[in-house]
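Action item from last week, closing it out:
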Amino acid sequence: MSSQSTPASRPDEPRGRDPLLVLVDPAAGRADGESVRIARDVLRGGADTKVALPESPSELDRILSHRGRRRPVVIGSDQAVQRVLQALHRQRDLGADPVGAVPVGPAGSTAACRALGVPAEPVAAARAVLAGAPRKLDLVVDDGGGVVLAELRVVGEHRRGPVSLRSLWAKLAAPEQGTTSDPDGTRLRVEADGRLLADVHEKVRLLAASADGGELVLEITVGGSSRRLRATTLSVAGRGFGYTADGCAVGPVRHRTWTVHPGAWALMLPAG
């Protein structure tokens, strides 16, 4: 590899010539090896590519910290993308390069990436990595080190149901998993930017959040009263509750605080 340095690209410049670090979630290879192979071949055909299959969070950390100028690209589920963003956030390197994603797995396990604009088909997604444009996105980060790409749901119907594709990265990071399922609601203390929205003697029937415009858009139903509001932080406490981050089950936990980080990362999407 040449030791000559390459000038940093502007955010709106084409990124197709950047060398790539392609991180393949081992679970994606087991679920749909053909799609993984196709995406890998397209990426190799358009850029200097190094492929890695990290088997643990520590291995993922090591690979990312030694990537040099290579731009990270994830082949796998929403959980796989979450784990890469978490590692980059821990290393204070999240905004250094735009991240590429090629969704591979059952439809429910890749819905967050598709909702953000990543093509569902592997060839189109790989081409967006090579010739697309980076788009700045907000990131929701919790005090346990987790991230949310699209939707957080603490109480209420989990729209995509249980995720069938379980990334090994996520299993190792969250060995206990479960979600709240009481149809009458869950007794929780809920605060948004320090404002009390529900206390432990009240049953919360719906609590969901997503990032938009540098803020959290919250939906909450307590008893028969529903509210929609904006905040920058959301804190929830209870005797033990589960939640889903982009449909991925986490918990049970007793307390969690989520904070939105405006424009914290960039995702490669189809140009135009």
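Closing note: The chain has two domains: 20-137+265-269, 147-263.
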